[in-house]
Amino acid sequence: MLSLQNYFDVVGLSISVSILLTIKKIRKIDTLARWGGEEFILLLPETTINKAVVLGEKLRERLSRMDISNVGNVTASFGVAEYNSGDTVDTIVQKADDMMYQAKSAGRNCVRYIENENKYFVLEIFTLNSLGLIK
User: Fold this and answer.
1) Which pick of 95, 106, 111, 125 has the fewest CB atoms within 10 Å?
2) Residues with catalytic annotation?
3) 92-102, pLDDT tens digit by residue?
4) Mean pLDDT of the chain
5) Which residue spans traverse the membrane (predicted)?
6) How far apart (Å, rounded) are the C-alpha atoms in residues 43 and 29?
7) Domain map (residue ranges) of the chain
């Protein structure tokens, strides 16, 4: 069975570009990047957790409607975390990553998040899930 990571390595650029173009309908101040194999990271400055969760749901729905040649339908699991005073890059990425793994554990194709009182910025990490490709 082919893993999504191996698929990215084989067809890599074309599928990554397709997915990024689908997702790219975000604000100019947001930053989207591939974060390793099948994971992507989305930095959302000046965003509340509620707005980030809504965006995650919209992106998840948009991705699930994509039909990628030789793959079929792809779903995504999102983890969302807000910046807390004192967080480092590593701690906020870890929190979002933990939420993403909670989303995967909850059956995939969903959004999980940590909420707090700060409104500095929100970080979303998501991974693509594709039936028949994930080991």
Assistant:
1) 106
2) 38
3) 899 999 999 99
4) 76
5) none
6) 9
7) 4-129
